[in-house]
Automatic annotation (TrEMBL):
One Pfam family cited in the UniProt record for this chain: N_methyl
Protein's name in the database: Competence protein ComG
Biological process according to GO: establishment of competence for transformation; protein secretion by the type II secretion system
Membrane topology: Single-pass membrane protein
Main location: membrane
Membrane recorded as keyword: yes
Compartment annotation: Cell membrane; Cell surface
Protein keywords: Cell membrane, Competence, Membrane, Methylation, Transmembrane, Transmembrane helix
Family: Belongs to the ComGC family.
Cellular-component GO terms for this entry: cell surface; plasma membrane; type II protein secretion system complex
The keyword Zinc is annotated on this UniProt entry: no
Transmembrane segments: 20-40
Length: 105
């Protein structure tokens, strides 16, 4: 025969398969899930704080623009119609009104 069965058996025996076992994979997945449970709530808190900080900055900007409007128009009333086109955007005014409603409640 052109091939030797004993030689093939020896080659199969010498093959050393190196791979992760199911237990090792489960341990790794468990560790990753624990880390996710620790970090995800902190990330959402950071997002909420950033949004709140952004809203606070917009409110300060609108308040500054209201003061500027009152300096330029001493007899004028600072409302949405007088402020939006020239001093602030409609989005900024909406955030300002939302903030004022929340602070008065």
């Amino acid at each position: 025969m052109w091939f030797n069965i004993n030689k093939i058996k020896k080659i199969k025996e010498k093959k050393n398969y190196s791979a992760f076992t199911i237990i090792e994979m489960l341990v790794v997945l468990f560790i990753i899930s624990i880390l996710l449970l620790l970090f995800v709530p902190n990330l959402s808190k950071q997002k909420d704080q950033a949004e709140k900080g952004g809203e606070t900055a917009v409110v300060k900007t609108v308040e500054t623009q209201i003061e500027l409007f009152k300096l330029n128009n001493p007899s004028g009333v600072a409302n949405e119609e007088s402020m939006v086109p020239e001093y602030v955007t409609s989005e900024q005014w909406a955030i300002y009104e939302k903030y004022n409603q929340n602070s008065t409640e």
